[in-house]
Amino acid sequence: MANPVAQERPTTARRGERPAFDRPLQVGSPNIPDRGRLFQRISQALDRGWLTNNGPLVREFEDRLTRLTGAAHVLATSNGTSALEVLARARGLTGEVIVPSFTYVATAHALQWQGLTPVFADIDPHTGTLDPAHVRELITERTSGIVGVHLWGRICRVDELRAIADEHGLALLYDGAHALGCELDGRAVGGFGDGEILSFHATKFINAFEGGAVLTNDPELAERVGRMRNFGFGPGREVLTFGTNAKMNEISAAMGLTALEHIDEITAANALRYEHYRAGLLGVPGVRLRGPGPGERGNDQYVVVEIDAGVTGVHRDRLLSALHEENVFAQKYFHPGCHRMRPYAQRAGLHTPLPLPGTEALAERVLVLPSGPAVTPHDVDLVCELVRQVLETASAH
Ligand SMILES: Cc1ncc(COP(=O)(O)O)c(C=O)c1O
């Protein structure tokens, strides 16, 4: 595997000199697994002539994910968005569905694209996940479900959301696109809600170029998802239901499987970089590195900092521009909230009682910093030094 765990020891960038990067540093540079093994799997798939349609690599990928997450059923899909679309359909969602606004737009789009109405709830700014009290306020007679997002790998307040869903007879689904390998009190992502989805997009913790999965412990729901992702075909090639094409192909499964074989190295590599960020940003006034809450295990795939402009004297956007000028492509994940995006904002009256103060506050403060194997621990030290210098210089003017 290309540089999954850099062997470098923690180093400190020299104070005073402005660090320079001769190449762009990106968020989520891809974890590219053992090329030899990947090419071997791809070659075998080509020899078999079985490139898609529930091939052996897809089934092996699903088996491995089943073992890893403990979910009873795993159904691989073409991407995370199609996984959520199919899951929402298969679970029978109708009318309004309560989702956080503070998420990647795919969460809202997947529902809207199915003719559902996303109703945007606020988040708890401390965790970045759905605020159960606000969810409760938004329930109407048209609400059929709740979709929580385990944002940046932070697990939603699953017990409170389960209680609300049960009380009102609602479906409860989770978008776990960021959260493979994450746990709360020993319970792994894959087992929460009626069903959860994962993403294996190239920037994700485990990458399959493009890919996704639906995970559930409900055998009937799994059966419906299995049919709907494949044009509604049941056994014997009879079309039993409406459906779409959300199948994963064998090449993606080859990549995903090979990455899963290296999950421990990827986890360790992420943790090492996170530790460098933690050490490097320690004591930088107004910059707080976010991390897992009590009882949680994260996967460190997203390195999220919060910039308190009241302390730094520098707005997050100014810091971001300064970093971009230096080839450090930090991202405003997620800004703006979905409710502020044009197609949703134009219909805000329909979708969302405003304001969403937790969402607005966090969307103005967060930055996700470069990560993944193409960013070495030494790069991380230099990024931290750059952040320190930019803030010192800007606040002095
Ligand atoms: C929170 C969230 N949900 C859903 C998705 C969609 O996944 P995909 O890109 O695999 O369709 C993504 C990201 O890519 C995401 O960040």
Q: Secondary structure elements and their pairing?
A:
Elements (H helix, E strand, L loop, with lengths): L24 E2 L8 H14 L7 H14 L3 E5 L2 H11 L5 E5 L4 H8 L4 E5 L1 E2 L4 E2 L1 H7 L4 E7 L8 H11 L2 E5 L7 E2 L2 E2 L6 E5 L12 E5 L2 H10 L21 H12 L1 H19 L5 E3 L6 E2 L5 E5 L1 H4 L3 H10 L2 E2 L12 H4 L2 H4 L5 H7 L2 E4 L7 H20 L1
Parallel strand pairs: 1-16, 3-4, 3-7, 7-8, 8-11
Antiparallel strand pairs: 2-12, 5-6, 9-10, 9-14, 11-12, 13-15, 15-17
Helix pairs in contact: 1-8, 2-8, 3-4, 3-7, 9-15
This protein binds pyridoxal-5'-phosphate (PLP).
The site of pyridoxal-5'-phosphate has 14 residues, from helix 3 and helix 4.
Family: Belongs to the DegT/DnrJ/EryC1 family.
InterPro entries: DegT/StrS_aminotransferase, PyrdxlP-dep_Trfase, PyrdxlP-dep_Trfase_major, PyrdxlP-dep_Trfase_small
Protein name: Aminotransferase class I/II-fold pyridoxal phosphate-dependent enzyme
